[in-house]
Amino acid sequence: MSREDVVAVAVRLFAIFLLVTIVRSFPSAMALIGQVELKPSLVLVGTVLAAGVALCAFLWFFPLTVARKLLPAMREPRSESAMNGSVALSVGLTLLGVWVLSHALPDAIYWLTLLLLSRQIDAGHVEWQHEQIANMIATAGQLALALWLIFGSSGIKRVILRFRHGQADMTP
Q: How far is CA 166 from CA 82, 85, 149, 161, in A?
C-alpha cells in the first residue's frame, strides 16, 4: 500500500464520517420546515447541508486526487517496502483506538469534574439520574475500548484473523 492509498482510504473514511454527521443533523433541519413563512435560516441550512453532501460525494469519488494534494512531494526516493495487510490492520486498529480515545477523554473529564464538584456540595448528597449513570458507564466503556485498541491491537488482530481464516496468524 502506498502512502497515497493510505491517505485515500482515510479520505473515504472521513467522507463517511461527514455523511453520518450530516444525516444526524437532518431532524433539526426538518424542524425548520414547519415554519409558517420561508426564513433565511431555512435557506442557509439547506445550502449548508447540500454543500456537505456535495463535499462527501467529491471526497468519495476522488480520494486519490485529494490525497495527492494533501501529501507533500517527496524529494528522497520512494521506499520500496510497502505496508502489508497485517501491519495495516494493526495500524488501523491503533488509529481507531486513538479516535475513540479522543471522544472518550473529554467525556471522562466532564464526568470526573461533575463527580468531584458534587462531593463538595454542602447541602447534602446529589441524586444521579439514570441517564447520567448510564453515560458515566458508557464513557468508562469507551475508555476501556480505546485503551484496548491502542495497546492491544496485536491481540485484536489475532481474533479478527481467527474469525476470518479459522486460525490465528502468529506473525508479529
A: 26, 17, 22, 7
| Residue 119 in grid coordinates | 462531593
d(CA 44, CA 150): 40
**What pTM was computed for the model?**
0.52
In angstroms, the CA 118 to CA 121 distance is: 5
**Pairwise CA distance, residues 113 & 108, whole Å:** 8
| Domain boundaries along the sequence of the chain | 3-70, 85-165
User: What are the distances in angstroms from CA 135 to CA 39, 98, 108, 115?
Assistant: 37, 20, 10, 13
Euclidean distance between CA atoms 77 and 70, whole angstroms: 19
| Cα gap 60→135, rounded to integer Å | 33
pLDDT, residue 38, reads 63
Q: What is the pLDDT of residues 79-126, one digit of tens each?
A: 556 667 777 777 777 778 788 888 888 889 988 888 887 877 766 677
Whole-Å CA distances, 141 to 114, 147, 159, 160: 18, 10, 20, 20
Q: What tens digit of pLDDT does each residue of 7-45 get?
A: 888 888 888 888 888 888 887 777 776 666 666 777 778
Cα–Cα distance between 150 and 142 in angstroms, integer?
Answer: 12
